[in-house]
Each structure stands twice: as structure tokens, then as C-alpha cells.
Amino acid sequence: xxxxxxxxxxxxxxxxxxxxxxxxxxxxxxxxxxxxxxxxxxxxxxxxxxxxxxxxxxxxxxxxxxxxxxxxxxxxxxxxxxxxxxxxxxxxxxxxxxxxxxxxxxxxxxxxxxxxxxxxxxxxxxxxxxxxxxxxxxxxxxxxxxxxxxxxxxxxxxxxxxxxxxxxxxxxxxxxxxxxxxxxxxxxxxxxxxx
Length: 195
Description:
alpha/beta; Rossmann fold; 4-stranded antiparallel beta sheet; 6 helices; globular; disordered C terminus
């Protein structure tokens, strides 16, 4: 059994002479929800990108379930994420996108049908069977598509960057409820706006 879901040690990232990330140590235990609050430019998204191996830090390590994310790809099988529209394939319909995500995670057709059933209320009448490309949806509906895709494989670790951007209050409440009640093993990293 692993002692920490996410462990960061001596993590730094510089852009030119500016240090945007300097985390000597951070340990997030299994089962914890963890939120970051800070001003724009404080390094929150940079940290998430390091956790997901989207950018390499200048020094330090990130481990997920004791797997060094820079040295192995195995952490990807238990991690879901949605940081921004760049995670979407905007020339797909939502159905094509969800099929793609299911294929990436090796899910079966029955898993996809179950996903649609589980997220029926979340999608309402706004997302599926519209014959629209993702790029043609509102920013709030694109956010819903991205978060749903991140939750599809029922990951043990989920990384969400500003998950409530462009979402109406009802959808925000639904996301919080789903994260707390329907994902028994879900560990959440959420970035919230700071005033």
C-alpha cells in the first residue's frame, strides 16, 4: 500500500530569471481532496502541468502512488485530468470524443453505455445527440464535456484546473456531489479562484 497519493519533493520551475514554482515538499494522502488557492500567475497551473508530466520541472520529483511520473507511464492508467479546452478534440462531436477517451483507457462498449447513463442528468439535453462539434458548444458545455471525459474511467486521481469556470451554479453543485458520492476512490486536486 502506498503512503501518499501524490508526493512532491524539491519541485522547481523557472521561466528565464523568474521562479514560478518552488515546492520543497508536498504530500497528499490517499482519500484527500486538495485545493489550491492563489492569484493568477502564482504557479497553480504550472504545478498541475508538472503533476501530469505535461511540462518538466527544472528540479525535483512528482510521484503518484509511489510511481515517479517522469520515469514511468503507469500512473496514467489511474489518473484523469481536465485543465482547459486544450484537452478536448474540438473537431469531434461529444460522442466521438467520449469514444476516443474510452478507447484510450481500454474501456468496453458496455462501459461507455454505463457512462452515458451515469452522466445523463449531468448532460441534460445540452450535450448529446446535438450533431454539433465540440468547438460549437458554449464554454460552459465544453467544460462539462471535459470534466465528464476526465471522470469517465473512474480514476483514482483526478486533476481539475478551475473546474467551475463558465459553469452555472446547478452544474457546480452537481460536480461537487458526484465527486463526493459517486467516485468512491476519487482523489481530487481542484484549483479554485482567489479573489
